[in-house]
Every structure is written in C-alpha cells, then in structure tokens.
C-alpha cells in the first residue's frame, strides 16, 4: 500500500515537471519571437549617412522644400534597402548649413533598423520648425566647402561603428564649386537647379564626387537620392530602378543601359 502511494507520488511529480517544462518552453519561444520580430540594435551599422543641405545656395523656398520632401520620400520608400545589409541597420542624420553658420541639426544621428524607424526619421524632418533658420539663411552666403568639411566631421562623431560612410550633399547649381575629394567617405553631390538650360551643368565644375546628379524637379530629385542610396547601400538593387530614373546620369552609372 505504501509502495503504491509512493509510485503515485513519483508519477505526479513527473507530470508536474513535464508541465512546468512545457510552460517554460512556450515562454522562451514567445520571448524569442518578440525579439526576432523587433529591430535588433547593435553597436555597428552597415552604413553611416549624412544628409547635408547647403541651404543658402537654394535661393527659392519652393526649391528648399522640394529638397526636404525628397529626403522624406526617400527615407520612407527605401527602408527595405537600408535594412538589407548584414547588420540590418543604417545610421542617418539630416543637417542644413547656411554660409559659415553652424550646422542646424534637423535629425540627430538615428539608427534605422525597421520601417517604423524610417517613418519616425521622415516625420522628424517633416515636422521640424524651419521658420527662424530660413530668415537667417537669406542673409548668409553659400559655403560649399564648409558644408563638406562639416559633414565629414559629423561622420567622425557617429557613435556606432560602420562598414561604410557616405555624405549626400544637396546644393544649388550656382553654389557648386570645386570639390576636393575627401578620404574615407563616399561623397555624392546632387546639384539642384530650376532650369536645366541655365548655364553649364553643375557637375562639370565638380571634381572628386563619387556620384553627381543634376536635378530640376521634385520627381527627379527624389529619384537621384534613391539612386545614390541604392548604389551605396543596396548594391545590386540599383539595377532595378524605376523607368523614370534612367535618364538621371551619375558618375557611377554613366555607362549602364
């Protein structure tokens, strides 16, 4: 009789242990899934990107707004490209310069590891209060070289390690002067002008930029930003661009169909 009850106790104990193991296993699985579904943060990113705008060289407020809208659209449309590398994250910052004035940090250094991150970065640029800074910009002169130097300094200040470093500089056509090639970072120059026929194309006056594009409308400006990001971050995805992007020539794609 005693042995029978002892056996029953052993059986009950083994059942309880099995149930507890199942519960712990389900909790561990759920926790792992939650982590897998969310963005993974690390101390490294695939690419660090400075979006730099030489505000004082963009003489019309409509053109300046086009530039801002282009960055917003590119962040939202290319989040899958920007998170496709080994680390599945990039770091971006968006800053505007006006002459010798210090950079205005619109979007501080931020990791983009998901669509949610990309939307948040785009929303920060869209909702920023530019009013006071635009009034100051009207009284300043353009300094293209200072924008480059400041952007490179920003790359050195990023807190995450990165496999690549990129400066995407948007500048008005009249402000595009000779550019000394910086070391250690890819420099893309997007020269914005309202009239394609007004003077020589800005890229003829530039030296050392890895990718240079001249744009004159909102659609081709957005396409130019997307192209530079696809080339430098997405690699082979650059071959799958939309048809309206093909006419925008760059130093990297001049010989491609």
CATH class label of the largest domain: Alpha Beta
**Number of H/I helices:** 7
**How much helix is in the residues?**
40-55%
- CA distance, first residue to last residue: 89 Å
Oligomeric state of the chains in view: single chain
The poorly predicted ranges are: 26-39, 177-182, 196-209, 236-257
Q: Largest beta sheet, briefly?
A: 6 strands, mixed
Number of domains: 2
Beta-strand residue fraction: 15-25%
CATH topology (level 3) name of the largest domain = Rossmann fold
Chain-averaged pLDDT:
68
The assigned CATH architecture of the largest domain is 3-Layer(aba) Sandwich
Question: Structural class, judged by helices and strands?
Answer: alpha/beta
Task: Return the string of H and E elements.
Answer: HEHHEEHHHEEEH
Look at the structure and name the CATH superfamily of the largest domain: von Willebrand factor, type A domain
Number of strands: 6
Strand order of the largest sheet: 3-2-1-4-5-6
